[in-house]
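queue> pop job 88
queue> type: inverse folding (structure -> sequence)
queue> payload:
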């Protein structure tokens, strides 16, 4: 065995794959145990291997579990293959069939270890076999490869699970069936068609940012799902670009979004003297313009949150100027009166402004003219 090559491989796997050296050694020991048992083991035998990567030495032991008479099946029970084993009352011990390669009686165990008790494991040294043969060597190789893949899978899952709900950056790898595949370095994520901003175009090789909204582990591997249309994507962009939000001085209370078109963000100050809307807009609009640019020109209305329903609804209908708001807190319905020249602003193109206002406030909103005519209605369930 080329120890220098082995040690270099262990170091490389730890550095490049994120798999700890100790975990790889355990994997190798499991593989050696499997190989030893395949060539030299007996049915029911439990074999443990110990491997030292520094000098290449291997040792093997056979493990046996200590049992007593109360744990063993009688001859009648052993012969009865239909005996009901699945139902065991609480506190009872499931009875087993004695296997001399797997078990050792308590009396015999105490000759080896004085304080042995039922359930303990007793080990016996086995003859070290360095030449396992081609079949066993191949078995060991396959187990090692599989276990290292599993360990790498666990490492990747752990790394990205910690980042779920955060903005992540990657390179567009390819497009298939409307989905965009993004290279994140150690893994590839999927930006599904329904999670893309409407009208956006992606080019292979370009860098993109998105919300890592779901990390799931399946028998086929790790699935990473991205979103650029999720409301939380905007919330995370605000955290990155606006120090007052990152510090908690300004809080995002709610977001209503129609991705690629328009969003409304309700904010509130948690500290005296801080203008929540001004903090988000920035001097000459520099802060909000950076976010709008990331979203491909999506319009963003920043409104001040209020616990007073009339004020909140009035703010939510910005940029329209409101004459009055009558709110019924029992039904969560509001009648909003606006001047004739403000009706189009209050309603918005295809009803978008009032629809987003209803979503962000959680109220049903009726827009009325000064003459008392209801010209538009919207509630939080309405879809664009």
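queue> result:
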């Amino acid at each position: 065995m080329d120890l220098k090559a082995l040690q270099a491989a262990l170091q490389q796997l730890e550095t490049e794959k994120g798999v700890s050296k100790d975990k790889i050694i355990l994997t190798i020991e499991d593989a050696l145990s499997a190989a030893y048992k395949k060539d030299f083991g007996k049915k029911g035998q439990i074999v443990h291997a110990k491997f030292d990567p520094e000098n290449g030495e291997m040792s093997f032991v056979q493990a046996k579990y200590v049992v007593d008479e109360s744990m063993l099946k009688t001859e009648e029970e052993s012969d009865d293959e239909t005996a009901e084993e699945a139902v065991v009352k609480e506190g009872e011990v499931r009875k087993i069939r004695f296997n001399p390669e797997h078990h050792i009686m308590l009396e015999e165990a105490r000759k080896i270890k004085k304080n042995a008790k039922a359930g303990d494991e007793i080990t016996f040294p086995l003859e070290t076999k360095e030449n396992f043969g081609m079949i066993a060597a191949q078995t060991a190789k396959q187990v090692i490869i599989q276990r290292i893949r599993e360990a790498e899978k666990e490492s990747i899952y752990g790394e990205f699970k910690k980042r779920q709900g955060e903005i992540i950056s990657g390179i567009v790898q390819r497009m298939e069936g409307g989905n965009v595949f993004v290279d994140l370095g150690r893994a590839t994520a999927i930006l599904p068609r329904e999670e893309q901003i409407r009208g956006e175009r992606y080019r292979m090789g370009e860098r993109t940012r998105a919300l890592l909204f779901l990390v799931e582990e399946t028998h086929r591997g790790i699935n990473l799902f991205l979103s650029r249309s999720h409301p939380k994507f905007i919330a995370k962009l605000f955290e990155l670009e606006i120090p007052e939000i990152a510090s908690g001085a300004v809080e995002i209370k709610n977001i209503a979004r129609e991705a690629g078109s328009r969003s409304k963000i309700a904010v509130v100050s948690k500290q005296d003297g801080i203008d929540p809307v001004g903090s988000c807009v920035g001097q000459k609009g520099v802060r909000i313009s950076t976010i709008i640019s990331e979203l491909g020109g999506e319009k963003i209305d920043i409104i001040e949150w209020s616990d007073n329903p009339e004020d909140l609804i009035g703010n939510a209908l910005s940029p329209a100027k409101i004459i009055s708001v009558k709110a019924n807190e029992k039904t969560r319905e509001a009648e909003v009166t606006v001047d004739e020249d403000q009706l189009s602003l209050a309603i918005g193109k295809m009803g978008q402004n009032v629809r987003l206002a209803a979503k962000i406030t959680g109220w049903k909103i009726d827009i009325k003219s000064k003459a008392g005519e209801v010209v538009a209605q919207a509630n939080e369930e309405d879809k664009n």
